[in-house]
Amino acid sequence: MNRRQERPRMKSTATSKTIRQVLGPLTKAIEPALAAALGGKCVPAPLAQAMRYAALDGGKRLRPAMVLLSAAAAADRVDWRMDPMPAAVAVELVHCYSLVHDDLPAMDDDSLRRGRATCHVKFGQAMAILAGDALLTRAFEVLAQAPGDKTIIAELIAELAGGGGPAGMIAGQVADMALCQVPDGEPGRRYIHMRKTAALIRAAVRMGAICAGADGAAIEALTMFAEKVGLAFQIADDVLDATLPAEVLGKTPGKDAQSGKRTYATELPVEQARRQAERLTAEACEALEPLGERAGNLKTLAVSLVRRDR
Amino acid sequence: MNRRQERPRMKSTATSKTIRQVLGPLTKAIEPALAAALGGKCVPAPLAQAMRYAALDGGKRLRPAMVLLSAAAAADRVDWRMDPMPAAVAVELVHCYSLVHDDLPAMDDDSLRRGRATCHVKFGQAMAILAGDALLTRAFEVLAQAPGDKTIIAELIAELAGGGGPAGMIAGQVADMALCQVPDGEPGRRYIHMRKTAALIRAAVRMGAICAGADGAAIEALTMFAEKVGLAFQIADDVLDATLPAEVLGKTPGKDAQSGKRTYATELPVEQARRQAERLTAEACEALEPLGERAGNLKTLAVSLVRRDR
Asked: Does residue B74 sit within a domain?
C-alpha cells in the first residue's frame, strides 16, 4: 500500500471539502484587497515588483481566510465591529515577508516556492531582504490606515505583532534554525511548531474574532481552535515535505530531513505524524462547539487542511 | 590647511553645543525606556541577546531625541496629548533594525558599527536577519500597546510605517544599493538621501508633533525642518565617512567611495558638501521661527549635528 495515499479516518461533523473548494470563494475577495495594498505609487518600481512577486499570484491565503472565517464564526456580519479584510491582508503580508526571509541563503536557502523561483533567486538577496522588510512594514501600515474604531485597530496591531514577533513566529524560526536550545522529543517539536506556524494562525483567528467583537468565551474557544489547527497544519506540511515530489509540492521536497530539521515527519513515523494531525484537528473542531453552526466553515477549513494532498 | 578642521561659519540663533551636550540628558531618559522595550520574557535568550546587542549600548539616539524635542517645540508639556516616549522608542527600534539589515553581507557588508562587530559578525547572518525582523515588529507592538488615545496611536503607527516603509526609508536603501534607477546629479543624490535618512527623521519629528497635539501649521513647520535636517545630517555623515579614520568613526571609513555609493562627499568636493549641510541646517532653523523659543533645543540639536566631529 502506498503511504502517500493511505489516510486514517476522522470523525467530524464538518462537511468534507477539498482545501481549494473551501478557500476558493474567500480567495476571490482576498486577492484584490491584497493587490490593492501593494499598489503604492511612491514605491520604486523594482521594489514594488519584488513585493508583488512575493505576495501575489500564489499561496493558499490560508491565514486571511482564517481571519474572515473566524469573524463569521464569532458573530453575524451585521454585528461585526469592523471589516476584517484589512486584518486579513495584513496577516498575509506578514506571512509572505516571513517566507521571503526564510528562503534566503543564510536561512533555509530555498530556491523554489509556490512552484517558481524564490524572491532572492529572482531579484537578488539585497532586494529580497528589503522586499521582506517592506511587506512587514506595510502590514502594520494597512492596519493603521484601516477605517474603523482605532481601539480595535490598536488591538489588531498588537495581536499581529505578538504573533509575528520575537515571542511568536520569529522565536519559532530561531528554534527551527537551531539557534536556541529546545527540549528533546514532543515538547521541543511542539515549541518550534507552535511558534513557527501556529503563532501567526492564532493571531489571524484572534484578529477575526476581535473584528467581529467576540466576547471572552468566544475568543477563548477560537484561540484553542487556532493553536490546535496551527500545529496540525504544520504537521501536515511536514508530512507533505517528506512524501511529495517537487512538481506537486511547489517547493524543494525532503529539505527538512536533509537539513536536519526537527519536524513531526523527521522525528516520527509518517503515519504517526498524520494521526496526530488528524487528532489535533478533531480537537480543534470540538473547541468550536460553543459557537454553533456559525463555525461550520471554519471547521470545514480545518479538516480540509490536514487532508490536503499538496 | 587641514580640511578635517576647517569649517564654514554659519549664522544661527541656536546655542552652540556639541551633539553630546545636547543629546546627553535626553539619552538618560531614552535608554531605560528602550531597554524596557527589549525585556520580553517569552523571547528565546539568543534572539533577545542579538536584539539588545543591536539596539542598546551605543548610538546617538538622534531619532528618539528628535521625537522628544519636537513634542517640546510644538506644545508645553502640560498640553501634550500623549507621552512621546513610546514613539521615541519605536523609531529607534526601526532605525536599529535598518542598521542590522543594511550591514548584512548581501547589503553593505559592513563588519564594524558603533565601534564593534556588526550583528551578523557577532551572531551569524540568520540571527541578524531575524533580530532585525524582530526589532521592526516590536516597534509597532510598542506603539500599539502604549497608553494613550488610540486615534493618536494609529496616526503614529501610520507615520512610522510610512517613513520606514517602501515609499520611505526602504526606497532609499533600494536607491542607495543602485537597485532602482535614480537621476544623475543633485536630484538623484537628494532622492536617495531624502529617503534613506530623512524619511525616518521626518517621521520622528512628526510623531513628536502628533503626540504634542500640534496644529497643522506647526506640523508643517516641523516637517520642513525635519526634511532639511535629515538631508543635512546625511551629508555630514557622508563627509565624516570620507574624512575620518575608523577609530574615530566607529565604522569602516571610506566605504562609500570604495563601493561606488552616490553621496554628497563622493560626488562633490568635501567643502562644497559641508557648505550645503550648513546651509540646509540654517534653513531648517528658519523653518522653526513660527514656533518661537520652545523650538530652541531642536535648533541647537540641528546645528550640533552638522558640526559634529564623529
From this structure: yes
